[in-house]
Amino acid sequence: MAKDKKKVNANEDKKKKHFWKEYKSELKKVKWPTPKELFNSTVAVLAIVFIVAVIIIVCDLALNSLTRLEAKGIENLQNAIVVEDSNNTVDSQENLLSENAITENELDTVENTVE
After folding, report:
1. What b-and-e string marks burial along 21-57, b requiring 16 or more CB atoms within 10 Å of the CB?
2. Among 84, 87, 83, which Cα is nearest to 95's?
3. Least enclosed by CB within 10 Å: which of 28, 40, 52, 108?
4. Rounded to an integer, what distance in angstroms lies between the CA atom of residue 88 and that of residue 99?
5. What is the pTM for the complete model shown?
């Protein structure tokens, strides 16, 4: 049993050493950018970020103004409906009054004829 543990530990140590050797060899293959390449890449990324930010801000402002116009349009439509309803209410009240006036006139004529 002790031999099995030693073999397992030895295999793990070999795997760890092998991993670090491969890690170092892969890092040597990496092509690191020169300072000029790094600067150019950084400028390109910042320019793209700025352009996208401007596009998003313009779209946001445009959509925001459209929703304000839409809200004003809906409010105006609601006000028009309320005014129309109030006019209809006034008209219906005037109709009732005129109907009542007709009936009162008819009552007067009926009373005059009865007397």
Report:
1. eeeeeeeeeeeeeeeeeeeeeeeeeeeeeeeeeeeee
2. 87
3. 28
4. 16
5. 0.44
